[in-house]
């Protein structure tokens, strides 16, 4: 049983001799009994300390040989860099801070490293697990990250994406959902939507649901960027959206409660959930990079998480410099392996009774994305499950659409043949055709919009976006399907230092990015004030950058911090009419 009081944990003790031998700058230490690593930074008499764990994906830091001042360390996973003298990450620049530990000296000049642990929120009002009847708790996999949970006489659904694409037109469902998916959604007592990405918040799916049950209760976490920030514009009529605070039990009935937790790396948008029924916990970490900052309940009945990788435009959509096909293929291979090991380690640490890899079942099935489909390989759930079985006695479940896990049976006897009921023989598992046309028509409609008859849309849009005072010059090029310049499309520069639109690159030193984007998608995004995840995660861009650095502030702004209301194009067009036609050719490609 957990404590609901704050605790102080001693992570490392140094003897007076070890303290006297601390060198100026960076010192690495390992606690031999726990195997955990720490970094101490000494500057004259001042000491700072942190765990030797990268905030991104838990990698280990080593000395950064490029740093002659001896203040920074480099992560062995993705080359993130941390300045230990300030506890700020310097690659990506201006991004995250490292959590610090408390340094205490004892009376003999020995040293203690302490961590102040807040109580675990799920330990408040703890419940002992009761025995479950067979059939009382059943979890049915529908597609991707969508699970249908029967919990006593209540039904709960996670992240329903069951029709249409995600990320503009880049992602399509790998699995064929059970034919009764809409009935299942309509029968749900509550739906949890983890975050705003369109493979979890699927407006085409919700539109079908709202047509039948607009008042269905939907629960989301209280993220800085609201999950449903774009509801009004979507035209989907949902009337019962509930935003709940993090880390507090939400009581559904006497046996059922749930708690939403935030992500440690993307707290502004990502969440995960613990569902508890009669004392049995189901943990769904969804897409979180560091769910709840890495503090999670152990020994839950069932844990599910993402596993596949490939949910980013990096590195397939990059070219120039080191980004050769060989380099990209090797990077992807290594990256997927790291992710697999990271997930296996997480499962080993948390020791759930049952683990299910999900939320990675998408495919780049549109013919124009054949290159991405062939190069953006995903992890195989069976491979992860084999890795887990090798290292622990956790039971694993590779879900197929329509398959149902009976929690009561599995907890009682994991070998029970009725513990997991597979879909009937002959059920279609993988999709082999997708209804592209209606969704591509919506994107295409933006191409001929009258906004784009006036080249001043560029200034209007980037002024609305509100990103400036940052030394970066970006060249934006509208392209056809194959990323060649779109005839009559726009090709222009944006200088984000003063938000100007120069004819050529400025004389001063500046980082430079070239972003080619399919014209239908960029115009749809501009017109509707959508986030650039549609472009980047949806593989709708091709990028080159010089120098090769990730501009966290720029991408983070366009992917998560754009204004909540779209640009006011109506008043823009009125203004254009008053000023005469004024269709300038200056930004157009021939």
Inertia-based shape: globular
Say what the CATH topology of the largest domain is: Metallo-beta-lactamase, Chain A
Query: Which CATH first-tier class of the largest domain would you pick?
Result: Alpha Beta
Question: What low-confidence regions span 5 or more consecutive residues with pLDDT below 50?
Answer: 582-590
**What count of structural domains?**
3
Can you walk me through this structure?
The chain is of the alpha+beta class and 590 residues long. The protein has three domains: 111 residues, Rieske Iron-sulfur Protein (3-layer Sandwich); 240 residues, Metallo-beta-lactamase, Chain A (4-Layer Sandwich); 131 residues, Nonspecific Lipid-transfer Protein, Chain A (2-Layer Sandwich). Helices cover 22% and strands 25% of the residues. It has 14 helices and 31 strands. The protein has an eight-stranded mixed beta sheet. Strands 18-19-20-21-22-23-25 form a seven-stranded mixed beta sheet, covered by helices on one side. A four-stranded antiparallel beta sheet has the order 5-6-7-8, with no helix packed on it. Strand 16, helix 4 and strand 17 form a beta-alpha-beta unit. Helix 5 packs across helix 7 and helix 9 crosses helix 11. The radius of gyration is 26 Å and the shape is globular. The protein starts with 6 loop residues before the first strand and ends in a 12-residue tail after the last helix.
């Amino acid at each position: 049983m957990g404590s609901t009081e704050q605790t102080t944990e001693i992570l490392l003790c140094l003897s007076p001799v070890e303290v006297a031998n601390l060198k100026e700058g960076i010192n690495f230490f390992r606690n031999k009994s726990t195997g955990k690593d720490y970094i101490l930074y000494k500057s004259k008499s001042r000491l700072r300390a942190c765990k030797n764990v990268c905030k991104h994906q838990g990698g280990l830091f080593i000395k950064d040989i490029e740093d002659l001042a001896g203040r920074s360390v480099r992560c062995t996973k993705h080359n993130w860099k941390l300045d230990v003298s300030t506890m700020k990450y310097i690659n990506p620049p201006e991004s995250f801070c490292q959590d610090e530990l408390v340094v205490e000296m004892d009376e003999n000049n020995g040293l203690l490293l302490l961590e102040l642990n807040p109580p675990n929120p799920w330990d408040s009002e703890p419940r002992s697990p009761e025995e479950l009847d067979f059939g009382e708790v059943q979890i049915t996999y529908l597609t991707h990250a969508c699970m249908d949970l029967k919990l006593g006489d209540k039904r709960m659904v996670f992240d329903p994406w069951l029709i249409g694409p995600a990320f503009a037109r880049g992602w399509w469902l790998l699995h064929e959902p059970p034919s009764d998916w809409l009935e299942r959604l309509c029968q749900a007592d509550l739906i949890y939507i983890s975050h705003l990405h369109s493979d979890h918040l699927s407006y085409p799916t919700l539109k079908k649901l709202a047509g039948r049950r607009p008042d269905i209760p939907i629960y989301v976490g209280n993220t800085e960027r609201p999950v449903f920030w774009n509801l009004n514009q979507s035209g989907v009529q949902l009337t019962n959206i509930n935003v709940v605070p993090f880390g507090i039990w939400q009581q559904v009935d006497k046996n059922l409660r749930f708690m939403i937790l935030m992500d440690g790396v993307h707290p502004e948008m990502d969440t995960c959930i613990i569902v508890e029924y009669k004392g049995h916990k189901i943990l769904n970490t969804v897409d979180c990079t560091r769910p709840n900052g890495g503090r999670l309940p152990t020994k839950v009945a069932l844990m599910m998480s993402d596993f596949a990788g490939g949910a980013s435009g990096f590195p397939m959509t990059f070219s120039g410099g080191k980004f050769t096909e060989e380099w990209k293929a090797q990077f992807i291979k290594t990256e997927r392996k790291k992710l697999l090991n990271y997930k296996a380690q997480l499962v080993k640490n948390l020791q759930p009774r049952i683990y299910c890899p999900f939320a990675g079942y998408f495919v780049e099935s549109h013919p124009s994305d054949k290159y991405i489909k062939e190069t953006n390989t995903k992890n195989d759930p069976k491979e992860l499950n084999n890795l887990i079985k090798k290292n622990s006695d956790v039971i694993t479940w590779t879900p197929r659409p329509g398959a149902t896990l009976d929690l009561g049976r599995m907890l009682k006897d994991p070998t029970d043949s009725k513990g997991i009921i597979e879909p009937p023989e002959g059920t279609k598992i993988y999709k082999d055709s997708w209804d592209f046309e209606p969704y591509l028509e919506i994107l295409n409609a933006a191409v001929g919009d009258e906004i784009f008859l006036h080249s001043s849309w560029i200034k209007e849009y980037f002024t609305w976006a509100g990103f400036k005072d940052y030394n970066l010059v970006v060249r934006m090029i509208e392209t056809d399907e194959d990323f060649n310049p779109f005839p009559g499309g726009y090709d222009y520069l944006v200088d984000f230092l003063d938000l100007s639109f120069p004819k050529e690159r400025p004389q001063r030193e500046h980082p430079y990015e070239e972003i080619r984007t399919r014209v239908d998608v960029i115009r749809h995004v501009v017109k509707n004030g959508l986030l650039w995840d549609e472009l980047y995660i949806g593989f709708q861009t091709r990028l080159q950058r010089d120098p090769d650095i990730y501009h966290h502030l720029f991408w983070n702004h366009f992917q998560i911090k754009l204004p909540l209301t779209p640009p006011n194009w109506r008043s823009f067009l009125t203004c254009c009419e008053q000023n005469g036609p004024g269709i300038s050719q200056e930004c157009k490609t021939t």
